[in-house]
Design a protein that fits this description.
Elements: H1 2-17, E1 21-25, H2 36-42, E2 49-53, H3 61-71, E3 79-84, H4 86-96, E4 103-107, H5 115-121, H6 124-146, H7 153-172, H8 174-190, H9 195-200, H10 203-212, E5 215-222, H11 229-235, H12 238-264, H13 273-278, H14 280-291, H15 293-300, E6 329-334, H16 345-357, E7 371-372, E8 380-382, E9 386-390, E10 393-394, E11 401-406, E12 409-414, E13 418-422, E14 428-435, E15 441-451
Helix pairs in contact: 3-4, 5-8, 6-7, 6-14, 7-8, 11-12, 12-14
Length: about 450
Amino acid sequence: MLACSALLLSIANLAHAQRPTVLLQHGFLSDRDTWSLLDSWLEPVFDADFYRYSTGASQSFPAQGAELVRQWSGVPGSTVYVGHSNGGIVGRELVQAGRHWKSLVTIGSPHYGAKLATSLLDGSMDNVIAIDVQALVYPLQTYASYYPTFSTYQWTTIFDTATWAAGLLWDFNLLKLWMGYSNGDVLAQMRPGEPYLDLLNSPGSVAAEASSVLSRYEITSTLGSYNGVWWRALTGSAESTAWMVDSRDFAEGVLLGAFTYYQFFPDLSDPHWAQMQGNAWLWLQAAAMLASLDAQFCILNGSIQSDLTCGPSDGVVPLVSQHLPSANVSVTLTDVSHTEETTSGLTYQRLYAILVAEGIPLRPSSGGPLSVGDIVGPAATTSGATDAFSIAVSGSHPPFTVRWSVDNVVWQNGTNSTFEFTNAGADFFLSVRVEDATGLSITRARSISVTNCGGLLYC
C-alpha cells in the first residue's frame, strides 16, 4: 500500500512538474516589472504558470543566467522562454549551459551586438551630448549678454550650469565612467564583434542550440519614420514624440529667424547690432544641430545608411542586429519602439500565437466571443465638416487593434475606438476592422453622404 501511495505521489509530482510554464526575462536597465502589463494580459488567457524574476541586468550574460537558475526551479523542457532585449541573450546562454527549453522567443535582442553599447563605453555619447548642449547654450548666452532685460539671474544660472555640465561630459566622459562602473560587464559583451557574441553565433553553437531547442522564434521591431526617432526609441511614446518634434521644429524656426534678422536686416538704432551680426552663425549652428538630432542618434546606434537617415528606424537595437541565427519563425513589429516591446498589444498578439502554436492550453474565455457593434456617427454630413465616429468592442481577448479606413485607405490604426474625419466634399465609404489578440477580426462599414456642397463642387 505504501509503495502504491508513493508511486501515485511521484506521478502527481511529475505531472505538476511538467505543467506548462512561461518564463519572462527582462532586458538591460530593467527588472521583472517590465513584464507586468503583458503578464496581466497573458495569465488570464493561458492555463500555464508564468514566472518573471529580476536578475541584475548590469551583470554579464553568464552571471544573469546563473542568477536566474538560482531563483527559478522549473523544468526547462516544458517551459517557453521569452526574453526581451538582453534577456534573449540570457536564454541562449542557458541553452549553451545545458538547459533545453521547450521553445525560445527573443524580442528585440541584440544577437549581433548593440552599437549603442560601444557609443556609451567609448565616450562617443558624452561628446555628442556635450557638443549639442554647447550649440544651444552659446547663442542664448550671447543674446543674454547684450540684452540685459533678458539676462535674469535664473537664466544665467541655467546657462552656466549647462556649460559646466557639457564641459564635464567632454573632459571626463561621465556617462562612460558611470556606465562602465555600473553596467560595464554586460555592455562590454553587447558590443558588436565582441568574442562572447562571436562564439554564441558561431556555426557550432548555433547548431547545438537548434538541436536543443526545436522551436526558436525572433520578434523584431522597427519605427516607420525617422523623424524624432531618438525620442521614440527611448521613450516609446508617439504623443510625446509629436510634441517634441513640433517643439524642435519651432525652435529651429526661431533660430533661423534670428540668424536671418541679424545677418541681413541691419538696425542702426540698435547699439548691439554689430556684435549680434558677428555672432549670427551661432544661431545657424544651433538650428543645424537640432535638425541633425535623428542622424546623430542613428550614428550612435549604428543604423546610419548611405542617405544619412536610418528610416525606417531600428530603435535602440538596429534591425540587422536583432536577428536570431537560424530562427524557425521571424516576426517584425512595425512602428513599435524598443521600450514598447514589452507593453505593446502587437507583441501580445504575436506571443499569443506563439504560445498557442507551442501547445500551451487556453483557459475558458471569461469575456465570451468577440463582439463589435455598428459604427456610431452621422449617416449624412455637410461639405468640409469634421465628424466623430465610434465603435463598441467587447468580449474575447484584449487588447484590440482598431483600423479605420476611408474609401479603403487606412487613416488611423491602433487601439482607439473613436475616429474623427474631415470630408473633402464628396460622399465617402467608412469602414473599421477590429482584431483581437488571437487574430480574430470583424469588419463594420457604412456609406456617408455629403450634402450642401454649393457651387460646382460635386457631392
